[in-house]
């Protein structure tokens, strides 16, 4: 009976031990993926900012500038690309909509971001663009990979259309969540005018004829939860200038926008709650279940060997049989 039980325990031990690496190295890459139909939005604000009045071409102080960012999964486009890409692909149609304190549009920049559903690496395909201009991204954007590491990453800047390092600056605790802090600086760079401008009849082409150019710099900051690779908070110290040309008269430059952009408080709370729930699912596949099954397998193996040893131990000696007394010879 003991030997039968030990064989059953041995089989369970082998199963649990084999299941441990399968969950981490086989199931995790196939199950941890960004859904193709995911939709998310984010509202950021820059209070006490500087904004260009296109009517007078003068910078003015405003109470608040609001930036609404949306990312909408395009399932039809992702399925089409997957046929030739040979892997699961996510297509995000994004929009960055900037509005002034009066609610009027300042600019809006559409974007199409195509990436691998598990690794978040860019996938180059027709339609990849920023503000209608084709781009070929290198590096990540919006989201870090699952199981983010303590190292620098390449991050794509949509304004400048360039990829630059975003540096790991240390581990912090943000609203009770352990996060990695990353920071990127884009130096003053000449960038295109948005195709949608707030003044009717003014276009990037008409501005180009005046010789005036647009320049941009930013310090980008992200606090990233490492298991999910999702930013729980972000900030930008953002500046834009118009330089040169006849549009500015005798001025060399004028501030188009300057402000410290931060996530709005209600979006911070909802993002932290969402990331915490997703974090548990990632840790189940990468840590809790693999280690749990490995420890369980070792325990079952130990118990199996113990029962096997008990079954092979010799039993107690049988009692000596009584003999009839032999006759005593005379």
Structure, described:
There is one protein chain. With 330 residues, the chain is an alpha+beta fold. The chain contains 4 helices and 12 strands. Helix 1 runs antiparallel to helix 4 (265-311). The chain is elongated, with a radius of gyration of 32 Å. It starts with a helix and ends in a 19-residue tail after the last helix.
Largest sheet: 12 strands, antiparallel
> Oligomeric status of the shown chains?
single chain
What is the overall shape?
elongated
User: Unreliable stretches, pLDDT < 50, 5 or more residues?
Assistant: none
Chart the SSEs and their pairings.
Layout: H1 2-31, E1 39-53, E2 58-73, H2 75-85, E3 89-99, E4 105-116, E5 129-130, E6 133-134, E7 153-157, E8 162-174, E9 177-191, H3 204-210, E10 213-225, E11 230-243, E12 253-263, H4 265-311
Antiparallel strand pairs: 1-2, 1-12, 2-3, 3-4, 4-5, 5-6, 7-8, 8-9, 9-10, 10-11, 11-12
Helix pairs in contact: 1-4
